[in-house]
Design brief:
79% of the residues lie in helices and 2% in strands. It is an all-alpha fold. It has a single domain, classed as Up-down Bundle (Growth Hormone, Chain: A). A two-stranded antiparallel sheet has the order 1-2. Helix 5 runs antiparallel to helix 7. The chain is globular.
């Protein structure tokens, strides 16, 4: 135990925290497109029914749930000369990059783009492989309590979120200026050739992802060996006795039901309901970048001042109040950049705040357990929750698909779209209100030993 603490204390620095967090730039770019833009690309551009997209994404979420749990556990169980975490980062990152590229390349490879079942199966296959590859990030995140002491983790999370949202901003620019333009071309002519900038940027994103995670995996110090109980059944029984951890998992699961709907529908809402395109996309992207950087810093400072639970409750309340703004889609005068900017700013604020918490919570719960058991099981604590979390996310995208495809279409001015593309805001507001009430009453996020430190 002392060896681990000496290792962490002596090596923790701002440079190390920023270097470790830098890998998130690559993962946020590819996950951002997969979660934020892919459904719009297949729905608007390729004409795949939203329900089929939801089914494929739901299956992917179930796969990633078990993948994150398995790789989290096995990275705890197997200590190598490279440590516990590095081998799985090196193994899974190329799979993540290749599957990402293939998800965006159906027009380059599939012979008949009018065959929507073939497009659905293509999406299903590569999204499933993408989710397996993305299990790598659970192993990467399980490194936090082994590399950084408790009081440094909010700052580590802040750095991660800086890189996350810089990556998201880059992704947003690529989506609004390149991907959405290609989707518009495909909507008019399904056989439109792939633009060279789309081809180059997609491959470049994959290369950046591999390069950043490989550099971090190779150059970060290997954590010293420590004894960990690697009995899977015994470990599961132990964490299932941790009632606060189970409450936290349920809280994150309920919340993720709402967050998954928000991220999945944002781009489609902007393109279809608010009718945003052209130069307006660039303005929105700039506002998003600036807003994210401000909000991440603001929420992190509130965590340090008010504590984790109070800050999280404030984020939930903000989301509950602002998400019903999606109803402006019922008003003809609202289809303009002003409302788009308001929506993007509000969503950037809530997602920027929420993004801080998983990184901190899992590491803190694992350390809290270590103080009782003497054994740090960061991998299984980071991975086990993913089964519940992704089950909720799977349900969320299925609900979104059903809502959009089953509700009647409405005409607002010259635009026609599903009523579901307007009602998602109040639906998510109700979900996050449940998260707020549940968290306030049942969840503990601030531990006594933190106050002692």
């Amino acid at each position: 135990m002392n060896e681990k603490n000496d290792f962490e204390t002596s090596k923790t620095s701002t440079r190390k925290m920023a270097f470790y967090a830098s890998a998130r730039l690559g993962s946020s770019m590819v996950l951002g497109i997969e979660g934020f833009a892919l459904s719009a690309f297949y729905y608007v551009g390729l004409g795949v029914p939203f329900l089929l997209i939801g089914i494929a994404q739901a299956i992917g979420f179930i796969i990633i749930g078990f993948g994150q749990f398995f790789f989290g556990w096995i990275s705890d169980a197997k200590y190598t000369k490279w440590g516990r975490r590095k081998p799985y980062i090196l193994l899974l990152t190329p799979l993540l990059a290749i599957s990402f590229i293939m998800l965006l390349f159906p027009t380059l490879i599939l012979p008949d783009l009018n065959d929507k079942i073939a497009l659905f199966l293509w999406f299903l296959l590569w999204d499933a492989l993408f989710k397996i590859g993305y299990s790598m990030t659970t192993v990467y995140q399980a490194w936090v309590p082994e590399q950084f002491i408790t009081e440094k983790r909010p700052k580590v999370s802040q750095f991660q979120n800086y890189f996350n949202y810089i990556g998201n901003a880059i992704m947003f620019l690529m989506t609004m200026l390149v991907l959405s333009s290609f989707a518009d071309q495909l909507e008019v002519n399904i056989n439109s050739p792939m633009p060279s900038d789309f081809l180059i940027l997609t491959i470049l994103f994959g290369i950046i992802l591999i390069a950043l995670f490989y550099i971090v995996a190779i150059l970060m110090p290997t954590e010293p060996y420590s004894e960990i109980d690697t009995d899977l059944i015994g470990s599961l029984k132990l964490i299932l006795k941790n009632k606060n951890y189970l409450r936290i998992i349920l809280m994150i699961g309920i919340s993720s039901l709402g967050w998954s709907i928000i991220t999945d529908v944002m781009l489609t809402y902007s393109l279809v309901v608010l009718n945003i395109g052209g130069d307006a996309n660039l303005i929105i992207s700039i506002i998003l970048i600036v807003g994210i950087l401000i909000f991440v810093l603001m929420w992190r400072k509130l965590v340090e001042k008010k504590g984790k639970k109070t800050t999280l409750l404030m984020i939930f309340l903000f989301a509950v109040i602002t998400l019903p703004l999606s109803l402006v889609g019922l008003l003809e005068f609202a289809t303009n950049i002003v409302f788009a900017l308001i929506m993007v700013t509000c969503i950037a604020a809530m997602l920027g705040g929420w993004g801080l918490f998983p990184y901190i919570i899992y590491a803190d719960v694992a350390e809290d357990d270590e103080k009782n058991t003497g054994c740090l099981k960061a991998g299984i604590y980071t991975g086990f929750n993913s089964i519940i979390l992704n089950a909720f996310q799977a349900f969320g995208v299925l609900v979104l698909g059903v809502v959009i495809d089953s509700l009647p279409e409405i005409t607002v001015g010259s635009l026609t779209y599903s009523l579901g593309l307007v009602l998602w805001g109040p639906i998510c507001s109700g979900i996050l209100l449940c998260s707020f009430l549940y968290t306030r009453k049942y969840v503990r996020l601030d531990f006594d030993w933190e106050k002692a430190k």
